[in-house]
Amino acid sequence: MKEQSQMGMNRTGVQMSPLDTHDMQNALPESKRPPAPGEQTAMAALRTSYIEQADQVGSIPVPGTVKGALSTGAAMLTGNQPQLLIDKLGERAAFERGGTRLYDALITKFEATEDNTTSMTLADLQKIRDDEARHFALIVSAIESIGGDPTAMTPCADVTAVESMGLMQVVNDPRTTLAQCLHAMLVAEMTDEVGWEHLIVLAEDNGQSQMVNDFTVALNDEQQHLMQVRRWFEEATLGKAISSGVMVDDVADAGRPLH
Amino acid sequence: MALNLFSSKGTSLDKQRFTWRDMVGKPISKLDDDAFTRVRIILMNGLELESLRFQHMAARMQGELRLPLAQIRRTEQHQATMVNWLLGPDHSPLETTIAYEQVAIEVTAAVAQREPDPYFAQLYRFGMLEDFDHLYRYSALLDRLEGKDANNILQSYTDILPGRPTVEEHRAPEDDVRRSYDPKTAEPLTKLHALMITAAEWQTHDYYMNIGPLFSDPMARQLYAEIASIEEQHVTQYGSMLSPEESVLEQWLMHEAMEAYNYYSCVQAETNPRIKAIWERFLDYELGHFHHVAALYKKHERRDPAELFPTDLPEPVAFESQRDFVRKVLKQEVDLRAAGTEIVEKSKESQASIAYRNHLNSEGSPSETVAAGYIWSPGTELNRKVTVAV
Fold first, then answer.
1. Is residue A46 part of a domain?
2. At what angle do helices B188-211 and B35-61 cross, to 10 degrees?
3. Residue A39: predicted pLDDT
4. Does B369 touch chain A (CB under 8 A)?
5. Do A47 and B217 touch (CB under 8 A)?
6. Is residue B315 part of a domain?
7. Is A248 a member of any domain?
């Protein structure tokens, strides 16, 4: 089993190099030090000017129904903001697709580490993974039902993918523990739950009763996922620390100043 | 102990083989490994990339050398991969940037003190003070954008202070071209230094050009644009130190010697045994390259390569904090400027550079904006604010 993070020769803090740190802080005489906090109004002004002049990330693909191409037989969108539904459907599709890959990575990590600190089983993970894949397929059908293109990347899908990059990096890093990966999954699941809730509201607003029904089932799945991931995360962190105490690797060296 | 290039034949080319698993090994720990292990990794990647770049240019000019160039280049490619892939994925691009500037400061400062030619030593000191300021500006960005302390990367080896202000480093091209060494009279170390630092700066330039657009923050995008421009100036300065009078084969031989000298230096200094084994392996590879090219040099130029390296190579590069030297240079030379090929007092700076800079900075200076009122404090500027507030 892969061990949890241990205490050791972490060199990043100033306590590891008190002499050099003292030198660094004394390099600038007190009289020459600017008052804290530093001046950041110019930076805010620069950012503001870019925000004011910025284009959007991109556009929402127009579905056939809005273009008037009703030959698809797709249901009309009746809400005030049909484009928002399309954007958010695209976001959910991307998130569920990415979530499936996150669980693929977590399954590999779980099997490789043979971590038994949680009540999580391979069957549990496989079920959630399959739920995510099924939810992706559900969203694809929903987009198609209103004449949309499920292969298009909507602006919210794009931005959400930027958000999720860190999660993918954490879960796929061979060095991360299962507990660290579960923390990343918790971020994903918490976001996912809220995402489905909002999507149901939007579907209702647009008169999409089939979507409301289907998405409510998906939301129930996601609520179950969140509860499970949260429990596993707590077992992997709190449970371990309380039952075993903190593990120390090479106590003699750890914390000894280096320079 | 110094290295003699002719004392070992190294690993022959046909035995320099890799697998993907070999190349993509375990990365270093950002948290636990010594900062100088990362300094060496970044430097050696830069030297390998320089080899690739040079050898491609050489192949364009020397048809008969294309095959041996392609053969050695393939190994250099895989060496570069194995070295660069040692950087852990938990380094954000900006954290890696901090590490790049630490390389630029510490290695250039070490070189400046060893450089036998006073003109070139001054050029290294001149460039070093500019990279020193870049570290300060990027540290402010790291603190104010990501909420991180640059010293987590630097490990207290390198000061975070203003140097020659980046806003004033922008010069007209004619004030960045320097005199080159005379290949007949320059000491081997002068040639090795010029190649090393040119390589390191070029790598830094290319890195900033690649990662600058990855940032969403306009402040970061502007700062990378500005400092990448200075790195281009640095490549111009250091690159012009290299002599155009050396033949392609002589330059190639010098590249291989430079790589061997640096891997040897890494072997001497490395504290991580796993990484040290890589340096030892690649020292042998580079000695193999050196002897392969030395044979070509004899064959094509009918000259003895030992003439270029009459004695042992100099003492290894000193991979250690150069704080005292850097502070002394900062105090004495921060106000120096460049005019033509010379380093001059501020009052003698060329009007061409002043005009060039005034236009570039006329819509604001990213390096000034990002670091306005910034002072490094352990645990970030926010930690200092809390302290002051209490």
1. no
2. 100
3. 79
4. yes
5. yes
6. yes
7. no
Chain A positions touching B88 (Cβ under 8 A) are 175
Question: Is residue A51 a part of any domain in this protein?
Answer: no
Report yes or no: B329 at the A interface, CB cutoff 8 Å: no
Distance from CA of B360 to the nearest CA of A (A): 16
Q: How many domains does chain A have?
A: 1
| A8–B contact, CB cutoff 8 A | yes
Is B1 a domain residue?
no
Q: What is the structure's pLDDT at A19?
A: 85
What is the ipTM metric for this complex?
0.91
CATH code, domain with A87: 1.20.1260.10
Residue ranges in chain A whose pLDDT is less than 70? 1-3, 29-37, 64-77, 240-255
Domains of chain B: total: 1
Q: In this complex, do A40 and B152 lie within 8 Å of one another by their Cβ atoms?
A: no
Q: Which of residues 77-136 of B touch A (CB under 8 A)?
A: 88-90
Domain holding A193, by residue range, is 83-241
The Cα–Cα gap between B120 and B132 comes to 18
B364 contact residues in A (CB cutoff 8 A)? 42, 46
Is B388 an interface residue toward A (CB < 8 Å)? yes
Residue A234 included in any domain: yes
How do residues A101-136 score in pLDDT, each as one tens digit? 999 999 999 999 998 899 999 999 999 999 999 999
How far apart are the two ends of chain B, measured CA to CA in Å?
A: 53
Strand partners, A214: none
Residue B204, Cβ density class (10 Å: 0-12 exposed, 13-18 middle, ≥19 buried):
buried
Domain of residue B310 covers 13-389
Question: Is residue A184 within 8 Å of A170, Cβ to Cβ?
Answer: yes
Taking the Cβ of residue A37 and every Cβ of chain B, the question of whether any pair is shorter than 8 Å is answered with: yes
Cα–Cα distance, B116 to B152 (Å, whole number):
34
